[in-house]
Amino acid sequence: FDGSTEIKPWDYRFYAERVRKLKYDVDENEIKPYFELEGLREGMFWVAGELFNFEFRQAKDIAVLHPDIRVWEVSERGTNKSIGLWFFDPYARPGKRSGAWMSSYRRQEKFRSPVTTIVSNNSNFVKGAAGEPILISLHDAKTLFHEFGHALHGLSSNVNYPSLAGTMVPRDYVEFPSQLFEDWLMTPEVLNRFALHSKTKAPMPDSLVKKIKNAGTFNQGFETLEYLASAIVDMKYHLSQDAKIDPRTFEAAVLKELGMPKEMVMRHRSAQFAHIFGSDGYSAGYYSYLWADTLSASTFEAFTEAKGPYDKEVAARLRREVLSVGNSVDPAEGFRAFRGHDPDSDALMRKRGFPLSPTQNA
Q1: Exposed, middle or buried by CB within 10 Å (0-12, 13-18, 19+), for 217?
Q2: CATH number of 32-208
Q3: Active site members
């Protein structure tokens, strides 16, 4: 650029990708050989065991919808107390919906008699030939851990009523445990044990780990701003008293009020904003993802401020005050009981690599 080049909104991602490659030189093809699906599944089991004393034993005598689906019995390590069942349905097949998600087939309760949880994690990886490893991208590895975080939320439940169990929490809280669990993927303990090269079985080299982590905060200013613009427009729509709204005029007015740079557009334009118009699930609630990331950033700092990501005392407190109570305790009260204070937005700023003043970092 010579200083006279004008970046248009439709140019931004192209040039951002050029800059990312130039600055960080992260090649997805270099990463994939270390992220083997079954190895990462074992890694998730290991993390759940280290944090919450969960133990997973494969059960082969339980009926399943398709031969690709496998089942594990989940119990409390040491006591062998049954916690529930975890179904894993990782592969694409005709008639299966796309994407990745967690399903709850039976919620925990103690109302009439003890009932344990049945949950599943579902993905759409392409199944290879027999014995061929399934290698996945960094993005898909994070998604795998994310959805397993939802499953752990369900499996951790310890309430009286199923309507309050596990993930039956407010919309702006449900993504908190899942986004939090993503943070364990890149811990040295997981990488050194489970991110092993599919051919050499060597752990991911430190140089590659460093590149991935350095690139992790790249372009966060852009991504946060385009997200916030959509979240605020969503709120403004649902606060408006006008019977009729012209979407283009409304968007332009809100974005002008926000001082949105002309080089950027909101992440989801109104005409294709399925989150808020496709159903009422995220109506006036698109902000939930950023709020969940604020909660998860503040929570993960509780571990790093203690003895690290696998601190037993912090993990036990997280399970007791947050994961086990579902919606039987007000989420704000549960978080304060765990963390000792309200969520810290500065933790989110640090996680995303935004500069803070010395007083904010103190």
Answers
A1: middle
A2: 1.10.1370.40
A3: 147
